[in-house]
Amino acid sequence: MPKRKKRLRVVFDTNVVIRHFISYRRKKQNFNRRVFELWLIKNQIQLVVSTEIVKEFLDTMKLILGIAEGLLEKWERRFFAHRADVVSPGKRFAFSRDPKDNLFLAVAAAGKADFLITNDRDLLEIAEADKRNLKFRIVTPEQFIEYWENVS
Predict the structure, then answer these.
(1) What's the average model confidence in pLDDT over 109-123?
(2) Residue in 43, 10, 53 with CA at minimum distance from that of residue 143
(3) What is the 3-state secondary structure (H, E, C) of the chain?
(4) Which CATH architecture best describes the domain 4-151?
């Protein structure tokens, strides 16, 4: 297991978390699930979150997946404590077509993330000129797994 300082630091977009749970329920393996398990099960990547992001995770888990309050409380503790760094978003970017996505950019920057992992085209299609201002890469779960397999 990599030491904490050596683990890649990642921010998950909400869609990665939700797709993980959907694949788990269907007992199907996919890239979202593999990325999530690198954090939760294998302790090989370091999750970076903020209170706002965790709230969005939990609200969406309740709304989309119908997860009960008691289980949501357990997940809240995991997101805040289970190999996760909690940061306050710093500088807000206005790079995404969807203004709500800019929170994930701010948290990735403030948390010195290596990657922002998402399935969201609004983030993936940020202009190259704007991406050069970021010190992290924005990738799909599949791209992250491909990178992970090449470096580990």
Answers:
(1) 97
(2) 10
(3) CCCHHHCEEEEECHHHHHHHHHHHHCCCCCHHHHHHHHHHCCCCEEEEECHHHHHHHHHHHHHHHCCCHHHHHHHHHHHHHCCEEECCCCCCCCCCCCHHHHHHHHHHHHCCCCEEECCCHHHHCCCHHHHCCCCCEEECHHHHHHHHHHHC
(4) 3-Layer(aba) Sandwich (3.40)
Domain regions of the chain by residue span: 4-151
Whether 55 has a pLDDT exceeding 50, the answer reads yes
In one-letter notation, the amino acid at residue 137 is R
Q: In this predicted model, what pLDDT tens digit does every residue of 10-28 receive, in sequence order?
A: 999 999 999 999 987 777 7
Residues 117 and 94 sit within 8 Å (Cβ to Cβ) = no
Crossing angle for the helix pair 102-110 and 51-65, to the nearest 10 degrees: 140
